[in-house]
Design brief:
Layout lengths: L2 H37 L1 H4 L2 H30 L3 H4 L1 H32 L4 H4 L4 H25 E5 L6 E5 L3 H38 L6 H37 L5 H19 L6 H4 L2
Helix pairs in contact: 1-3, 1-10, 3-5, 3-7, 5-7, 5-8, 5-9, 8-9, 9-10
Length: about 290
Amino acid sequence: MSSALLLTFISEQVIIYLGITIVIAGIIGELLNIIVFLSLQTFRQSPCALYLTVASIVNIGQLLTGLLTRVMISGFEIDWTLNSLFYCKFRLAFYQICALVSLTCMCLASIDQYLATCSKPHWQQWSNLKIARCLCIITILIWILLSIPNLIYYDLRISPITGQAMCSIFDNIILLNYNHYFFSLFLLGFIPMSIMSIFALLAYNNVRNIAYRTVPLIRHQLDKQLTAMVLLQIIITVFTALPYIVCITIQLIIISNDPLLQAILQLFYTISLCLYNSYFAVSIDKMGG
């Protein structure tokens, strides 16, 4: 067996076993998140917990339409997008909506914790359930609207290169480049990571100073717990997203027909993809203590 074929085989095994493990563990973990956040009164009254609840819900959708479909395609050569025009159009649009809503909610959660832990009351008043509900609805509507072009332009056609049917964009190069590059590099990577990191660190600094202010003990403990959840989730996001971003960047720079190099890049992409999807599978209710 050549080196290229061996690396291709390893990529298939990684996506099958690691991918399926992440999907199963992720769905169970996110269901536990939802149960915890909805069952405890203290969390039901917290805007930050609302953002985390919405993120957990859409994470399940992302794992099912994103990673599970990729496992079936790359690991078992079963492509559901080729069997259904509806799923061809629906899959990427729904995957993008779920991923972007999840990341946006994490950004909002980090911002909310910064506001909730501020020493100035006029900043604290922006952390409330009414605003959180409105922002969640607006977030979902915005990403749904921005995903409509995928429903329009994705189609099943015969590839002029391979001669095989494929689900892709054929009539809109701008949208194709947006999905391949801007969506992957910036909307899933640099932008949310920057926002989350900045506000999580600011919230962490605020929480360290809470002990020196007159704050009810229950509120103090809740803020500490939620901030710990958000901060740890963001740390995981950064470390799982960086390899994926690096891989996408390398693929943009290196264009080669060498089978061995292509196999190496594919293995790197498969590992980084599974690693990145592990962000959507983390059970954050366990991390907060």
